[in-house]
Design brief:
Elements: H1 19-22, H2 29-56, H3 72-83, H4 87-96, H5 105-110
Helix pairs in contact: 2-3, 2-4
Length: 119
């Protein structure tokens, strides 16, 4: 599930979440943390890939240290990504707003559902 980083409304600062209320969806605090952590890792990888693609345009393949210079666009791109909410904040917001889909594979096996993932 791709994230549009420009449109996210996740908080930039630290919030205190009611873990009891959040964990009611899973029935377990540890399972809730696991779901949020996995989504945060997905978001982090997506952000890193996107940033890497944007910064690759500015890559210099010269080994000459005297030609090191600052590119204004590169600095602005880096600052934009630094100002974004942290992946955990985005994932927690998605979880609290019921935008995340998760399932328990062991529960699916118990009821005879197919567990194969399709890409």
């Amino acid at each position: 599930m791709p994230v549009d980083f420009k449109k996210t409304t996740a908080p930039l600062n630290t919030l205190t979440w009611d873990t009891v209320a959040l964990s009611q969806k899973t029935g377990n605090v540890y399972e809730m943390v696991n779901v949020i952590a996995k989504r945060a890792n997905q978001i982090s990888v997506e952000m890193k890939d996107e940033l890497g693609k944007k910064l690759a345009e500015f890559a210099s393949y010269n080994d000459n240290l005297e030609e090191v210079f600052e590119n204004r666009e590169q600095i602005e791109i880096s600052r934009f990504y630094e100002r974004l909410p942290k992946p955990v904040s985005i994932a927690t917001q998605e979880y609290s707003q019921d935008k995340l889909f998760f399932r328990r594979p062991e529960a699916d096996q118990q009821y005879g559902h197919n567990n194969d993932f399709e890409d």
